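Example 689.
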Amino acid sequence: MQKFTVVKGLVAPLDRANVDTDQIIPKQFLKSIKRTGFGVNLFDEWRYLDEGYPGQDSSKRPINPDFVLNQPRYQGASVLLARQNFGCGSSREHAPWALNEYGFRVVIASSYADIFFNNCFKNGMLPVILPEEQVDQLFRECLASEGYEITVDLEKRQVVTPSGEAFAFEVDDFRRHCLLNGLDDIGLTLQEGDAIRAFEAKAQQARPWVFNALDRT
Amino acid sequence: MAGKTLYDKLWDDHVVTQRDDGSCLIYIDRQLLHEVTSPQAFEGLKLAGRKPWRLDANVATPDHNVPTDKAERAGGVAAIADETSRIQVQTLDDNCRDFGVVEFTINDVRQGIVHVVGPEQGLTLPGMTVVCGDSHTATHGAFACLAHGIGTSEVEHVLATQCLIQKKSKNMLVRVDGELGPGVTPKDVVLAIIGKIGTAGGNGHAIEFGGQVFRDMSMEGRMTVCNMAIEAGARVGMVAADDKTIEYFKGKPYAPNGEQWEAAVAYWQTLHSDADAVFDTVVVMDGAEIEPQVSWGTSPEMVVAINDNVPTPEDAVDAVQRNSYERAYQYMGLKPGQKITDIYLDRVFIGSCTNSRIEDLRAAAAVAKGRKVASSIKQAMVVPGSGLVKQQAEAEGLDKVFIDAGFQWREPGCSMCLAMNADKLGSGEHCASTSNRNFEGRQGNGGRTHLVSPAMAAAAAIAGHFVDVRHF
Ligand code: SF4
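Predicted structure in complex with iron/sulfur cluster:
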């Protein structure tokens, strides 16, 4: 997994609440059996004027000039500024895959849907939670000045604006540790194999029916 | 010390280890797999040279992409017309064969939507931790399970380790007291709850649905409610186990029997919140006040009672909501203040893991019986949740009722719930749908979804517009 320590980058403001994963990556793109190739279809229904389908050449499609990510000033953004309950809806991990491939390493919002939030960490991305007022302030500043860049420092757990103002955020120690070191969850969990086996032995006594072999006929 | 909630009990019984920051390794009893969120997980296992930790914890079935058209379906995987869909279903078959995972394949009578199949087969049992790469896994909480959706990395993690790394959520009780009025269904209850607490109302919480209304509700009704916990922002929705829960599993193919059954029942009887348990958040509603619901907007919280109007911008609680309303009017092609009963439909969809079980089909058929779908409706489809639901419905003659009324009777799968197969809305079309999400584009690019109960959907199909099923 990609390590995450400090990201300094351009901010793109997506001023909508309850952005759902169907919006982030529409379902027709879920038919892929790969983990890559989703970046060009991020926010597909907002970004393009026609209906997208998997495997097409998106460089030839009519783009929606009104959509924020299509505006020249936000090209190359790596921080997505969003509103409350970002990533609600389906559990599709294709949503963080698409954001990541597009170039976003950080999302900042006042709240997230739980599954999306979790999925970000599994992909070396950081979902930052800031209070509503601070998110508002970032929206205002970002809209007011072109080329608005902020620094997101996971080590220090803070977001620093161009004026030097710092907003602290919280993140679980374990998740932070994994992100900072780019650690693979599965490898870490397998190190606790003995504890898992011990749990199974005990659970099998208490709830044997859970462990019955499945009939394969 | 205060007693434990149902969630506390389920959690405590599955903690393998706890880390200093409070995150835990949680043991997973059952994982359900389908073709959309599993290929990258199996690929990850292969690349790392790993094997499933406990093979028999996993069961798979294709559902999202399978064609529901009889002719196309008859040819099996090879006959799926859409190439990408075919590859995805084929990949699931291949992975299950390579790894030895039990799979109910496309034309196996046990195939169906994962959340219908799990309980139907007794693969989901009370007290289990159940996961699936699908957010509606909360459905299984109806059986006092700790069940929730996960992402693909977590699917791989569960395959490889049988565990998940998690932090405990807060406890929330949604209590609905009293009795429901006639014609008011579990779907209306859950829509009314979401309308009240909002799509983020349950964020960070595990919801337990309690109170007289849920005690009186059938198991299938409880599944409908728990199914939509995620639409209220909670990964987990649950109902305590009672006699109905236990009765439900008697004789199910994968349920325990003999001595094991007795032991299981003794354990299942403990699966309820203690009388002195404390919840972090409590919401109380009166069942008698709930009316048949219809969603008007592009989020499940944008829902009103059938005899209400589309809200006006002045009804919004803040600027962010007003902004969402404005967007929703435009997308849905509705005017603020217009009557819900004046919304005319183009298509009707009865199906999805929310409402595709036998009781749902019976409720819709009771309304459709002896009537005709309005000529203005382009398509009205009924898609059973599994092959076994379909078989049962046919044994009861429900298929005939639907076909005589002008509905299409389809093969089991997710179908138009998310339109990954050929079943979808055209741009601008309004659909009365028994599914769970009315997001922009969910049922097809530009499609306009209205969430309702099966009875309300059937009534709307016949009238051509929304009507109050209580006076129908
Ligand atoms: S029926 Fe709809 S919500 Fe349920 S699993 Fe299928 S696609 Fe998801």
